[in-house]
Q: What sequence folds into this?
C-alpha cells in the first residue's frame, strides 16, 4: 500500500513573509482543512520561503503541496530543501508548480523541509492550502 503522510500534529512552520492583516498563517498549510491556507499576500517575486519543522528527524521522500482551492497560487518555480539542523540545507528537487505539486525524491533524513519559491509571476501569490510530507 502507498505510504501515509506523517502526522502534522507536532509540526511548527515559519515563512519569510505572510500576508498582513489576514488569518492566512503558516500553520494553516497543514491543518487538515483544504479551505484554509498560508499565503504571502503578494505577487511571486522569487526568494519566498516556507519552512516546516517536523520536531524530529525522519526519512522523507515525498512532499505534496496542494493549491486546489486557490488554483493559481502554486509556486511558479521551486527548490525543495531538507535539513536535520536548520542550518545546512540540501536541495533535493527543483521544478515548476501546479495545482497539486507532487515532489518525489530519494528518501533522506530530515527534520526541516523548506520550499523556496524561485519563480516570478505578477498575477499569483505563493500560497499553500495543504502540505503533506511522506516517508
A:
Amino acid at each position: 500500500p502507498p505510504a501515509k503522510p506523517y502526522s502534522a500534529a507536532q509540526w511548527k512552520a515559519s515563512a519569510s513573509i505572510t500576508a498582513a492583516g489576514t488569518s492566512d498563517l503558516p500553520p494553516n498549510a497543514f491543518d487538515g482543512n483544504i479551505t484554509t491556507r498560508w499565503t504571502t499576500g503578494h505577487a511571486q517575486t522569487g526568494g519566498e520561503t516556507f519552512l516546516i519543522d517536523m520536531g524530529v528527524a525522519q526519512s522523507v521522500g515525498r512532499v505534496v503541496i496542494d493549491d486546489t482551492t486557490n488554483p493559481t497560487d502554486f509556486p511558479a518555480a521551486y527548490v525543495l530543501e531538507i535539513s536535520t539542523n536548520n542550518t545546512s540545507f540540501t536541495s533535493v528537487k527543483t521544478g515548476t508548480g501546479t495545482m497539486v505539486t507532487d515532489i518525489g525524491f530519494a528518501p533522506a533524513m530530515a527534520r526541516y523541509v523548506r520550499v523556496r519559491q524561485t519563480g516570478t509571476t505578477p498575477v499569483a501569490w505563493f500560497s499553500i492550502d495543504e502540505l503533506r510530507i511522506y516517508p
The first strand starts at residue 12 and ends at 15.
